[in-house]
Specification:
The protein has 529 residues and is an alpha/beta fold. The chain has 2 domains: 23-95 and 133-252 and 504-524, P-loop containing nucleotide triphosphate hydrolases (Rossmann fold), CATH 3.40.50.300; 278-492, Class I glutamine amidotransferase (GATase) domain (Rossmann fold), CATH 3.40.50.880. The chain is 32% helix and 27% strand.
Length: 529
């Protein structure tokens, strides 16, 4: 069905040669982690299915999960997921400002995909943040001009009175875009009614006027029991409740905040699979863990249990241990030593347990990590785990590329997929030098180079997204099963691309069926005449 058939008003008043202004919708929340990102992705897919050219936008994002675009720019994973839901190539303008925490009070600031340095929260939330507004404004209007619909996401809560003066992501964006706002509350965590009423009470009158609908997200139970509360909200606020979205965990949409890892651990334990039924993959839960979506493909495998562990006692007897990426490699390396995890990992390696390092985790497997310029922290040098024969030193320039190449290694499981094409992306400031043959031959931005190293049962790589490559992941899991003395059925192999598309479509159906879409289209100016 074409968009003209779906929405007759879209071109009703068009003038030949005159470009029509994009429709827009903004998703704001009563707090963080209410589901804004996933709902924004759902709306991107819903309107994409209806034939619209849709783009996501979030002015400022704070996350350790990031992605590298085809042009080498760095942006938040949430907007990448939303772009994929909209059938678009990710563009840094969709997330013009990204903050990556490097400590309790500071973050690396990334503007239009490029790192600008590390600032304290106090320094950022002032003159610097005000200077980013023209950049945000320009990116927003360019997307509005280039697309038919823009789905805008806010951050945290719009009612944080201590941050509103320099706001560049919530109501200031809504006013600039003249965007109707849906206010989302997480009813699963309790206090949803109070959070909605309280948020609206703290908004300025002109801001409150932009809120055109209320959404209750993550609802469990009988909607009939909730109806009196919904009636109260509408009567108290004068704003319609346009959706009650049931709690969903039937399909996997990549998450952005590491808070979800606790829920994932519980859900895996609830499955109650025995060791005979599933591989046990343990990921170290580093304090500054980044890009944990690298391991989402394991979540989709029926014969794998993925666990995140913080201390040695939690490790148990895993089939493999993964040290993930980090936004503060030296601090996280010190955490490994201080917690006793470092010694435990070395012990496992000596017992021939597979140990994997991705990006920062790869660096930690080496002999030493140095940061003479203080690019990530005040720590200048930390002794590595000494498993891989290499040394890493941080430099001022950040290496950010989308990578494509092939498997050239011959040991461990690599012989099964040698010559296979792989894709991924790199985000690191460290440069590693070591002995031994590369595992992968990579081509990025016109340069060909080697990546990865192994020693015994341990190997590492700078490539994020390495396990998204179906043949490599399959070879790896088959190898782990054979180490157990078992075999893995061929029908276990799953396509990550197909899983993602199915999840987007299921999410769109889930949200569409939970929303008053005619009301939302009316709010956006897309209703039928």
């Amino acid at each position: 069905m074409s968009k003209e058939e779906t929405n007759p008003e879209v071109n009703r008043n068009s003038v030949p040669g005159e470009k029509q202004e994009a429709a827009r919708l903004m998703i704001q929340g009563t707090s963080s982690n209410v589901g804004k990102s996933v709902l924004a992705a759902a709306f991107c897919r819903i309107f994409y299915q209806e034939g619209y050219h849709v783009a996501p936008f979030k002015a400022q994002n704070m996350a350790l999960n990031s992605f590298i675009t085809r042009s080498g720019g760095e942006m938040g994973r949430a907007q990448v997921v939303q772009a994929q839901a909209a059938g678009l190539e990710p563009d840094v303008r969709m997330n013009p400002v990204l903050l990556k925490p490097t400590g309790h009070t500071g973050s690396q600031v990334i503007v239009l995909g490029k790192a600008q340095g590390t600032l304290s929260a106090l320094k950022y939330h002032g003159d610097y943040q005000r200077k980013t507004w023209p950049i945000v404004e320009k990116a927003l209007h360019e997307l509005l001009e280039e697309h038919e619909i823009v789905i805008i996401e806010g951050a945290g809560s719009p009612a944080e009175v201590n941050l509103k003066q320099n706001d560049i992501v919530n109501m200031r964006v809504a006013k600039e875009a003249r965007a109707p706002v849906l206010l989302v509350a997480d009813i699963d965590r309790g206090g949803a009614l109070a959070s909605v009423v309280g948020t609206l009470e703290l908004l300025e009158p002109e801001e409150r006027e932009l809120v055109r609908g209320i959404v209750m997200n993550k609802f469990r139970g009988d909607i009939k029991l909730l109806q009196p509360a919904l009636d109260f909200l509408e009567e108290r606020t004068g704003i319609p409740v346009v959706g009650v979205v049931p709690f969903y965990d039937q399909f996997k949409i990549p998450e952005e905040d590491s808070v979800v890892l606790e829920e994932q651990n519980k859900s895996k334990q609830d499955k109650g699979k025995s060791r005979d039924e599933a591989l046990d993959v343990a990921v170290i839960r580093l304090p500054y863990l980044s890009n944990f979506t690298d391991f989402d493909p394991f979540e989709d495998e029926s014969d794998v249990i993925l666990r995140y562990v913080r201390e040695p006692a939690e490790l148990g007897q895993p089939d493999c241990v993964i040290i993930p990426g980090s936004k503060n490699t030296l601090s996280d390396l010190r955490f490994l030593w201080d917690s006793g995890l470092g010694e435990k990992i070395i012990k496992y390696w000596k017992e021939d347990v597979p140990i994997i390092g991705i990006c920062g985790g790869y660096q930690m497997l080496g002999r030493v990590v140095r940061d003479p310029l203080g690019t990530e922290s005040d720590l200048k040098e930390i002794t590595g785990l000494g498993i891989l024969p290499m040394e890493t030193e941080f430099v001022s320039d950040k290496h950010t590329v989308q990578s494509r190449g092939k498997v050239v290694g011959e040991e461990l499981f690599l012989s099964r997929c040698q010559g296979t094409e792989i894709t991924g992306y790199e985000i690191h400031m460290g440069r590693s030098q070591g002995e031994g043959n590369s595992l992968f031959e990579i081509e990025a931005q016109g340069t060909v180079y080697g990546d990865g190293m192994l020693n015994g049962s341990a190997f590492g790589t700078y490539l994020h997204g390495i396990f998204d490559n179906d043949p490599l992941r399959t070879a790896f899991l088959e190898w782990l099963w054979e180490r157990r003395g078992g075999t893995r059925s061929v029908d276990k192999t799953m396509s990550q691309a197909a899983i993602r598309e199915q999840a987007f479509n299921e999410l769109a159906d889930w949200v569409r069926n939970s929303m008053d879409m005619e009301k939302i289209r009316s709010i956006m100016g897309l209703h039928k005449g």
